[in-house]
Amino acid sequence: MKSDALRGHLDALLLATLDGRELHGYAIIEALQLRSGGALDLPTGTVYPALRRLERGGFVRSEWSTVSGRQRRTYKLTPSGERELANQRTAWREFTVAIEGVLGSGPWPAKA
Amino acid sequence: MAGQSLIGDYIDRLGARLDGPRAAKADLLAEARNSLDDAASTYRDAGFPETTAQARAVAEFGPLSLIADEYQEELAVAQGARTMRALLAAMLVVHLLFMGRWPTSPSWVPVLASVVNYAWVVVAVLGVLALVGGPRLRRCQRSGRSFGRLAGSFSTGALTACVVLQGALITATAYFNLGLLLSPAILATLGFGLVVMVRLVGMTRRCFTVSAAA
């Protein structure tokens, strides 16, 4: 999938990846690729500024900690981030239902 | 090892393109380095030779111009926040140092001193709001450079107000009570204020240059 198409959804994807867990940057990238079956193709370096942007917005919190014997910055959702993720999920469901209704191959509804 | 230099070279070239507070820059580069090392390690574990593993890690990380541009956004935020914190701290210290030192006559001088006091309270409240709320503004979330420029503009306004208002008080003191102005305590306070002002002007200027860099 083109990185340009992904950029508009990157913040929501990162919030979803951090749902219920604390991960460091590269683990977030691996989780994104794993969950998408490798279809999400974006420069991995762009994930870190996006995470800082989310931190600036109060949606994630980060700290340096030792993971597998190495110092890494780990990220987790804040309560505000959890609410934002729920909002993003709702908006996405509404969007996909609307688009599927038009682009999907099912029969057109009869006129009222 | 030749392979090791690929990631090192990338980090060095990225660092050379970035401009901003040293600690924030080192923090970003350390995280980038960790990510590249992790990626290279994953490829090594998959059986790729060292050089290929690092070359893949660097290629995946992204073109230098794109990555530097995005990282610079964060450095603009860091510079803006640093300047705002320094401005607020300096305003508090300088205000406390000057408080109660102005002449009591003619009657308009204490009035002007009160206006200056209230002006500082307003600037301090606005400054704290900008520092805390600015990075969360939608526009500043999209672009860290916007926050850098916002901080630079706020600091410019606050420093201009400081020059005008404190300047008026200093001029009045010089005119009506030169002896007071030339007292060692006031001269030392003025000297300190001047040093702080020069430093803050430099930091304010950096807000704009860091926001325009890369």
Descriptive overview:
The complex is a heterodimer of chains A (112) and B (214). Chain A is of the alpha+beta class and 112 residues long. Chain A has helices at 3-7, 10-17, 25-35, 47-56, 79-103; strands at 23-24, 60-67, 70-77. Chain A contains 5 helices and 3 strands. The longest helix of chain B is centred in the middle third of the chain and has 35 residues, at 64-98. The two termini of chain B are 30 Å apart. The A-B interface holds A 24-26, 29-30, 43-46, 48-49, 52-53, 56-58, 70-73 and B 27-28, 30-32, 34-35, 38-39, 42, 60-63, 66-67, 70-71, 73-74, 77, 135-136, 140-141, 144. Chain B: InterPro entries: Perm_prefix_1 (IPR047928).
Q: What is the helical fraction of chain B, as a range of percent?
A: over 70%
Radius of gyration of chain A: 17 Å
The end-to-end distance of chain B, rounded to whole angstroms, is: 30 Å
- Global geometry of chain B: elongated
InterPro entries (chain B): Perm_prefix_1
Protein name (chain B): Permease prefix domain 1-containing protein
Keywords (chain B): Membrane, Transmembrane, Transmembrane helix
Organism (chain B): Allokutzneria multivorans
Write the layout of secondary structure elements.
The complex is a heterodimer of chains A (112) and B (214).
Chain A: H1 3-7, H2 10-17, E1 23-24, H3 25-35, H4 47-56, E2 60-67, E3 70-77, H5 79-103
Antiparallel strand pairs in A: 1-3, 2-3
Chain B: H1 2-17, H2 22-45, H3 50-61, H4 64-98, H5 108-133, H6 138-142, H7 144-176, H8 178-181, H9 184-212
Brief overview, please?
The complex is a heterodimer of chains A (112) and B (214). Chain A has 112 residues and is an alpha+beta fold. Chain A has helices at residues 3-7, 10-17, 25-35, 47-56, 79-103; strands at 23-24, 60-67, 70-77.
Spell out the key features of this protein:
heterodimer; A: 112 residues; three-stranded antiparallel sheet; 5 helices; 3 strands; B: 214 residues; mainly alpha; 9 helices; elongated; transmembrane (chain B); Permease prefix domain 1-containing protein (chain B); membrane (chain B); transmembrane helix (chain B)
